[in-house]
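anyone else get weird line breaks when pasting these?? whatever heres mine. first is seq + tokens for prot A
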Amino acid sequence: MSIWIMKPIDHAGVLVDGVLTFETDDSVTNTNTALHYLSSSGTETSLPNAGVTESNLSTADWSLYSGSNHNFGYLFGKVSGVTSANTTPTITNVNSSKLISETFHSNHSNSSNGLDFNADVTGEYQYNASNLTIHAQGEVISFSYLAYSSSTFEPTTFTRTQNNDNGNVYYNGILVGSQSSGSGNEEYPTDYWSLTDFQSNRNAFKDEVISKISTNQNDIIEFLVKNALTPEALKRLHVQLSNDGIIT
């Protein structure tokens, strides 16, 4: 089986959103895979349903192109090796690699979201198209095929649904549908918050914090910006404030 990685890139060439991983039969060619997976029609039913859906899109990440179309891009690669695994790569050790569990993860503190996809951040993230490698948090992921592709699509057109109907698809290294998406607690079991003491005290904590917003606003805002916002969310906030003329 062949293992593939897809990482969305916004109109400015910046890494955004989560990362998709999936397997295909070895007979699938690079051209066919790219054509079907980057297509807005999603008509190829023999391949896993991996792709970015309309619910993943935001105007901060995807620019309007030619009036009514959105411009988007991907890093797209066929994995050939993971240095930490020291063996033929499997979907399991690819998903547990630093690239998927941290660097390309949408919510991890070590996420490289917000960086140019060509960035070279020593020890953290380095994309090397010539050597077909990506360095991530001290690991090296090698590829037999690695490319940046971009295209356009109509905002109202169906884009690929993320599901496992034609083969398992993983988002941020987690099987699609196995955990509630968008919770912000992807590193914990789905029922984590209901099984801890935090659940019973949550309302009291919330009321106490809210009561202090007017007198401790700066401290609370500073904490939220540093600890609650992902790199991608912080980038979006900066873009919005710049567009509004608040940041010049």
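and prot B, same format (seq, then tokens)
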Amino acid sequence: MVDRIFKATDRHGAEVEFELVEPGMVETNEADMQYRTAFSRALQHGILPRERMIEEMRRHEIWDKQTSDEIAGLAAELVNLEAELDKVKDEAKGLEVAAEMSKKRNRLWELISAQQGPLANSCEGVAAVIREEALMAACVRIKSSNQRYWKDYRAYVTERDGENSGDVVIKVMDLQGQILLGQQKDIVGKQPEQLYLGKIKKQEQKKASPVRKKATKKKAVRKRKT
């Protein structure tokens, strides 16, 4: 688990201890409001909404049917392989199925990333980035007082884009990145093939570890008197 407490130099040049707290309803509602505002502004500036962008991508054959069909096919294959993995009894066969699942899942994520990448420039994509940033900013607290460091998203942006304003933004963004990376690893680790491989690894480690025998005391044999 990533430590959410960090030290950074604030806007006044003082070293302060901060904490990136878990978001609550207030912070979430505030971030949602920033999402709606950002979406409206993006629309006003001529950025296409997601569905319109998909239509344009299909029209220009950027989002082609072949890729969509391959994604659907891989998803169906993974469902079948998962069912097979649940029933497998032979370890060698299980490892083979798990390896095949891992290969197909990697290919699936590769295709989805390539297909979804351009959508980051849609109204929804732009607004989602601002929402995440606003949520992060709302959760930064001064550890000693539990007070918010930035009173609102505008204050965060002012400090982020200003000069000589400390390094709280840099530190908290780095921390947020570590948290997101940890969450991604957790998601990957919970995939059926990874759970199976982890189970096999534990079994092998258990077999490899030496079993200690309990020391037994030897009974002293008394000699009979003749």
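btw re prot B: Residues 62-120 form one domain. The first strand starts at residue 5 and ends at 9.
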